[in-house]
């Protein structure tokens, strides 16, 4: 407890909007890393990039209820504030903003955000209202913080794609993506790993490596992508007894399924021991 108090004395921890305004009012080169806490090496990577590209960096810790389409998922989402603050102090973050739900959503009504039909794919198809919630809360953060650059990871590439399109059109701000950080088994780091045991993570590693191989095969023959995906999908479901929400290829230009002469990624969402994991390759 004493150690935590020392950390807080040395780091600008902000909980109120009035204090936020005072702290960052004159910052013109501010990097913003929005998080929901339970920080891992992926978050750390984004923070380090922000510190290199911007004069000052602000990190938010806010588990946003409006982006959860499942109330139980919101309740069980990993929370570890004490550890998060130690990580941020070690990284010498300039500002840490930890608002309450009431504080963020009492800002008043903001124009309703709706996804276009073409964007209701992948996670948006299976998590109704999820990205609307993400864009809503980031819109509110943008009005409060006015950063020069927002930093997001590529693990949730669809989120990055939608946020970039929304933020850069509405604000004088860039949205920068950081590469996905993986563990020794090539599994993309996620806060949800705190809900899995070691055996689950080993299985996730086997699945991940299988999907990396699948991406390689598709890259060599895009015309056979549907058949290759179907075969691997059936194999993974039977072998590991998992539920796969989606496993499909999308190009990086507009996230459509047209792959001809376009860079693309293989996207997946699956449930392992009731925990939902996403990745792209």
Q: Would you give an account of this structure?
A:
This protein is of the alpha/beta class. It folds into 2 domains: 2-178, Rossmann fold (3-Layer(aba) Sandwich); 191-280, 2-Layer Sandwich (Pantoate--beta-alanine Ligase, Chain: A,domain 2), CATH 3.30.1300. Helix content is 44%, strand content 19%. It is built from 11 helices and 9 strands. The protein has helices at residues 2-10, 17-24, 41-53, 71-76, 81-90, 101-105, 122-126, 130-145, 157-170, 198-220, 225-240, and strands at 12-14, 30-35, 56-61, 95-97, 149-153, 174-178, 243-251, 264-272, 275-280. The strands form 2 sheets. The protein has a 6-stranded parallel β-sheet with strand order 1-4-3-2-5-6, sandwiched between helices. The protein has a 3-stranded antiparallel β-sheet with strand order 7-8-9. A hairpin with a 2-residue loop joins strand 8 (264-272) and strand 9. Helix 1 (2-10) packs across helix 5 (81-90), helix 8 (130-145) crosses helix 9 (157-170) and helix 10 (198-220) packs antiparallel against helix 11 (225-240). The radius of gyration is 19 Å and the shape is globular. The termini are far apart. The model is unreliable at 2-7 (pLDDT under 50).
Alpha-beta content class? alpha/beta
CATH architecture of the largest domain: 3-Layer(aba) Sandwich
CATH topology of the largest domain: Rossmann fold
How are the strands of the biggest sheet laid out side by side?
1-4-3-2-5-6
Uncertain residue ranges: 2-7
Major sheet characteristics: 6 strands, parallel
User: Percent range for helical residues?
Assistant: 40-55%
The amount of beta strand, in percent, is 15-25%
The whole-number mean of residue pLDDT values reads 95
Q: Would you count the extended β strands for me?
A: 9
Total count of helical runs of at least 4 residues: 11
